Amino acid sequence: MRQKPISGLPYFLGVDRLDAVASPEDRVCVLNILGGESRTVTPVSHAFSGGNVVFGTSPGRSGQVLKTPAGGIPVFNTVLEGIRAGHDFNTGVVYLPPSGVRDGVAELIRVNPELKKIVIITEKIAVHDAREIRAMAQANGIDIIGGNCLGVADSWNKVRIGGALGGDHPEESLVKGSVAVFSNSGGFTTTIAQYLTTAGWGTTTLISSGKDVYIQYAARDFALAFAKDDRSKAGVLYVEPGGYYEKDIDWQKPVVACVVGRWKAKLTRAVGHAGAMAGSGDSAEDKELWFMEAFDVDGIYTSETPHVSAKGALVTNIADIPAALTAVMALNDIQPDFAPRGSLSLKPWIANDQGLQLPPDLAQPVVTAPAPYDAQIAALSDQIGAVIARQSMKDTSGASQMDPKTQVTSVHGHRVLDLALQPLEAMFALPLVHELADAHDRAMLDVAVAAEVNLIGDPILLAADAARDAGNSPNTVMSVAAAITGPKRVERALACARALIALFAQSGLRDGRDESFDLSKIEVDDQTRALFLATPDEADDPRPEAMLAAIEARGGKSVFLRFLLGFGERLSRDAILAAITTTIAWGPLARKRISRLTAETLPWYMRLYGVMVGATIPGRHHQPGSLWGIPREERFSRWTMADICCLAMTGKKPDPTEALYVQILIGLLISNGPGSITAQGAKGAVSADGPQTPDRVQINKAMAGFLTHSGYSHGGNGFEGMAFLLDQFRDKGLKDPTDPNHGLDLTGMARDFALAYKRDKATAKELGTEVRALPGVHHPIFKGKPENFDPRERFIAQFMEERGEYNIFHHFYRELVRQLYDVGASRYVFCVNVDAIIAALLLAVLWKDYQAGRMTDANLETAAFTIFLFGRMIGAAAEIDDHLNRGRNMDTRTPASGCKHVV
């Protein structure tokens, strides 16, 4: 047993002066020197300290050497083997795994009578092991620092022992001065030293105490050594909750204490590094009071409330430490060690406000970064658009997600419930620009899509009519149109978009609508210029002029269109389409919300939107200059996407209420998450083409993938819901489905159906057959709940209630699920799902047309299917674009191990 003076404390403390914590005389042995962390950190410490590590241990690697800038460090199997080889040391550093720390400490103590201190880097040491380590060290007169620490350092002596204080270049952070630092956090020990230099304060000794339950070299030990250190005029402490280490200490010199971790009081278990759990009386708030009492201050120091005394100050943010220390030392007539070396004000090297108008105190100006970062940032700034890492996208999406708690899907961060209240154009733009389009861009999108809907003279129309006449479902008809809208049909439009983006990429343009932008600096060669001009074959196409007139009528502004019009020659429809899409995409592109690939492919999506909507209109209604009798000029200049979609489904321009409900339905139907069949169909088509070679991916084929993965169960259930409602109400004499005084006994109607359904279930069970499915009525969405609901149906109900509106078909569905439960036909209350809402809302909108014979049962059923396709077309575009940017080749396939054979 080795006993030494205990410096007046009730336990052994050998290192009772700060200059002895890390001195030039110290010689170090490192346990597990070839471990992952030590192999990186020890060479830096060894070189910075002038070569203070004499040897290390790594069982089974005796004879190896750890190379360092200051020469090689020999490695032995055991500590005793190193000592017998003639290597003396007084300090041990432990990098062993938690389970081996106790035995490593025991080995150091047992074989080396000259041992004075041990620094334990390892975290998560068992509490009972920490107790035994403490007992062994106390019994043998040895100081322990750690565990879970980053070691110790001395800026005067240029010595570092243990971990990575000062980082890879400790000479930059460990600057000689007059402030001692004691910190529960290793990383913040370095940060505090760096922060102090900005205010002109250097450091003496820095101790990373760690923050396990046992802090072996604690604040009271530091206070004693600090008081004896003539170099140290002030101290800085970084303190976390847990333990009474800092309570009732007489600091004797000025101190700034930073106490953090109020949030830990809300936790119920320990949280790793920040270790000892705040218990009763040792929370962050409690420790703040200890320091305020010790410093005779009545509050926390901030720039707004500078509570200080000559004894010290309390802060709760490390950024406040330099200013607080300077204020405290001024009261002691002590000036900083050297001139300030910078400031802690925000100095952003890169800024992207995503187009938000930030208040002045948040909109920080960008400063030039030091080399070599300045050149790297300049290169990044030259690159336009986001760069998205590729990854496996099986059952994954970067575009849509479903909240498992609410069962509500979001697309690019916007819930479908919120999207349903947005103008339809904003929904169509969202998948491709990742933000909601404003009124200007919505108007531009209206023109772009309207120019594609009338398919007169186009083979697509013949093919769509042929598919319709063959009895195909609406999704199949639409997929024929998508299939024909292939790469060749958009080749020039895509080339125009690429050319415009290339011409303006380095121009500094931030807003594609900036009318003050100087176009004189944009130079274009003859070949590129010719790309945008109409050819003789297009002389009879009236759409370019009609598009330009419509843009002017709607107040459209476009730098790119202004640039093209400056040529003074007739532009092609492709060029105008590309100018529109580049205008819409430019802001998100410049803000790096979207990739350049997305912006360059935008014309393809716009053409597909128009063609797919147009294909739903029978060929006889496509006429030169008019669509279903509506003149081109009117549609181009004044109609919205909701008007066009409603026209496609019903053959008429809707009134404002009708247009609103079409918009809402499409919004609710955009996506049901990345796991839906339609999303998988779209993503699988991109995956099969190979998104790692984007120019091979056929976006129209991916749209066809979504369409072929729609059907009467997934998509067409609104079709069946419409048929179901027509059966229930056909002969009931209903005049106005929006009048709550309709005179029908909905409860009785629902009960009669429920009883019949219950009988059908019993019969089917006896015969071993399946009972008919109920369209629009589904099993639980929220499993285990006695009453289920579709959040989209609840949204519609609340929306109508707030507007004072009524829908008899919706009301009937709600009565039906209740009666099914009441008569015992179901074990819980089924939900009225979105398919029922499609049928109910559409039928109410079109009831008068149906009663007047302007619409047939087949027309209504097709409309219900088609509105689903319009909504899901938007969601499919989001998945296609996301997978095109993010996916890898064939990354949606299921491995053989995940497949099974059904016998």
Strand order of the largest sheet: 3-4-2-1-5-6-7
Secondary structure tally, helices: 32
Radius of gyration computed on alpha carbons: 37 Å
Kindly report how far apart the N and C termini lie: 77 Å
> On the 0-100 scale, what is the average pLDDT?
92
Which shape, going by the Cα principal axes?
Answer: elongated
Give the helix level as a range of percent. 40-55%
User: How would a crystallographer describe the biggest sheet?
Assistant: 7 strands, mixed
Strand content: 5-15%
Say how many strands there are: 22
Low-pLDDT regions: 1-5, 268-279
Structural class: alpha/beta
InterPro entries: Citrate_synthase_sf, CoA-bd, NAD(P)-bd_dom_sf, Succ_CoA_lig_flav_dom, Succinyl-CoA_synth-like
Domain Succinyl-CoA synthetase-like flavodoxin: 176-282
Transmembrane segments: 827-847
Keywords: Membrane, Transmembrane, Transmembrane helix, Tricarboxylic acid cycle
Model description:
The protein is of the alpha/beta class. It contains 32 helices and 22 strands. Strands 3-4-2-1-5-6-7 form a seven-stranded mixed beta sheet. It has a seven-stranded mixed beta sheet with strand order 9-8-11-10-12-13-14, sandwiched between helices. A three-stranded antiparallel beta sheet has the order 15-16-17. Strand 1 (28-31), helix 1 (36-48) and strand 2 (53-57) form a beta-alpha-beta unit. It is elongated and about 105 Å long. The termini are far apart. Residues 176-282 form the Succinyl-CoA synthetase-like flavodoxin domain. It holds the Pfam family Succ_CoA_lig. It comes from Paracoccus pantotrophus (Thiosphaera pantotropha). One of its GO terms (cellular component) is succinate-CoA ligase complex (ADP-forming). This is CoA-binding protein.
